[in-house]
Known about the structure:
Number of domains: 1
CATH superfamily: lambda repressor-like DNA-binding domains
Structural class: mainly alpha
CATH topology: 434 Repressor (Amino-terminal Domain)
Shape: globular
Strand content: under 5%
CATH class: Mainly Alpha
Largest sheet: none
Amino acid sequence: MDGTSIYTELRKARILKGYSQEYVGLKLGITQNYYSKIERKQCKISVEMLLSLCNLLDIKPAELFSCMEGEKKAAG
């Protein structure tokens, strides 16, 4: 992970897995539209959903939290 946002990393991981937003939404029990808003930072994501996403996308939660450190440093 290169210090980009959690949302960007989720999108990258989804694309690398070859999953559509619709597929991820279906697996999470949400709509494609809602998942799209998550990736665009237009709605909040619960810890439970974040952990489910990590599991689905084979991402370690710690990797995403390291992205947050990069965001904080960039913000100053």
